[in-house]
Amino acid sequence: GCEVSLWLGEQFAADLSLAFKKLEVKTVSSNKILGLLGQEFAMPQLGHQFSEDLWDLHGAIVLIVSHSGGTFSPLAVSNLLQSFTKQIFVVTSEWDTQIGKQLRHLDAGFCRSRVFSTEIGMHPAEPCSISVAATHQILTQIFEHIAATLTAEGSLRRASGSVVGLGDLSELEKCNQLNIEALEEIVGTDRNGVAISAAETEAELRKKGALWAQHVLESPRAWILCALYILGTVISQSPPVTSGVKRLGLDEKHPSVIYVALLFDALIYLFLPQICILWIRLVQRRPLLHRMAGRTVVIGDCPWVAQCTEAFLSKVMACSYSIASLTVFSGNPADHLVHRMTHRVVRGTLLACGRPDGRLSALTTAENAVCLSVNQASSIQSLGATCESLTIGHNPYKLPLTAHAVFLKGARPDYLCERLLSTTCPQQMENKECDLEAPPMSPARSNIPTPSSKARS
């Protein structure tokens, strides 16, 4: 695939490789395959571990991910790779797409269909949002089916190097089903399309989004206020300071005072944009010391989430007027977010970061790395102000240096490590710091069995 489809495929391949150690799973952009194998003069893929003779694609199982099913490069690759292998499948939005038509000409073989459909239909004018969620869901189901098939027989399990047991697979399927209930709380609508009036998470997310929208909209509002002020004072020929001096008769007693008044009026005109922005922030009770310039949003999360969110937000804002534009970046807080973005942190930078649930033993170290990155970015100050950071996750504890935190509700039962943490440190469950004589047992150091970190969740 390419772009968001490729990023979803990369996560799927990573999960598959972790669960089945002996399977050779590769991901590559369809543009790279087309440039290297589909041209009369091959285009070398510099900087990538992919060349004509490096991968043997004969007989390989190929999964093409394309929401539209008609993107140029995946469509061309679906035809190109038929000379290497007949085991080609596609994940797309519906059954009848251009790639589906290409693959239906192949012999059915052991399968009745080569198309995995998300069944959400075409969304030609929509930046990737619902299509990303649907594609991720169907890839999860494909992963479960592969895992169920390979773990059913001992010979297949040994040949694939499976580290996934039936218990892991059962737990994954349970989380997959219960996740629907958790999503209803996030989107504020149940699975039947009926609005949920008491969806606290949805209300909190919209509240934070509305606050950040005020940051972006302050520039056009300040421009409107400046225009009204200038039009009013110029047309009426009554700048406020000069008019006040004349009404008080100070210009008759001290003629030189009129020049001082004109100077103050000139200074008001000169700094009018800043004055209007400060006035708007005072009225809305927002931070006063944020930079008075275009806003920058930085998204931190695991690669596919951060990249897909960046693509969505940047495309949504692509048609905005320059005065209400937004710059969007993304990074992995457990990897390169600090190196790529912290030197760009200024007053008013908006940092949204997904936070793993460190109450699970498999995610404790990941949460620590994310919290360290967020704290480092939030500690960079100028004039006593820093970036405005927001964390989103299940762990109900707000980092001291962050401005906002949204806690997602879960639908699954607590694992044993979560229950142990809630009994040894109940303060953390109430968004308070633990204050015990002996530190609570960390899930990462306990010997309590917890869900395998290899399972896809």
Provide a brief overview of the structure.
The chain is α/β, with parallel strands linked by helices and 457 residues long. The protein is built from 17 helices and 8 strands.
List the helices and strands and how they pair.
Blueprint: H1 4-19, H2 30-37, E1 62-65, H3 72-80, E2 88-92, H4 98-104, E3 115-117, H5 130-152, H6 154-160, H7 166-187, H8 200-235, H9 240-248, H10 250-253, H11 257-270, H12 272-284, E4 295-300, H13 303-316, E5 326-331, H14 337-341, E6 350-355, H15 364-378, E7 388-393, E8 404-407, H16 416-424, H17 426-429
Parallel strand pairs: 1-2, 2-3, 4-5, 4-6, 6-7, 7-8
Helix content: 40-55%
Overall residue-averaged pLDDT value: 86
Output the radius of gyration.
Answer: 28 Å
Largest sheet: 5 strands, parallel
For the secondary structure, the number of strands is 8
Strand order of the largest sheet: 5-4-6-7-8
Number of helices: 17
Molecular shape: elongated
Residue runs with pLDDT of under 50 for 5 or more positions: 435-457
| Assembly state | single chain
Please give a structural write-up.
This protein has 457 residues and is an alpha/beta fold. 47% of the residues lie in helices and 9% in strands. The protein is built from 17 helices and eight strands. It has helices at residues 4-19, 30-37, 72-80, 98-104, 130-152, 154-160, 166-187, 200-235, 240-248, 250-253, 257-270, 272-284, 303-316, 337-341, 364-378, 416-424, 426-429; strands spanning 62-65, 88-92, 115-117, 295-300, 326-331, 350-355, 388-393, 404-407. The strands form two sheets. It has a five-stranded parallel β-sheet, sandwiched between helices. It has a three-stranded parallel β-sheet with strand order 1-2-3, sandwiched between helices. Strand 1 (62-65), helix 3 (72-80) and strand 2 (88-92) form a beta-alpha-beta unit. Helix 1 packs antiparallel against helix 13 (303-316), helix 2 (30-37) packs across helix 3 and helix 5 (130-152) runs antiparallel to helix 7. The longest helix is centred in the middle third of the chain and has 36 residues, at 200-235.
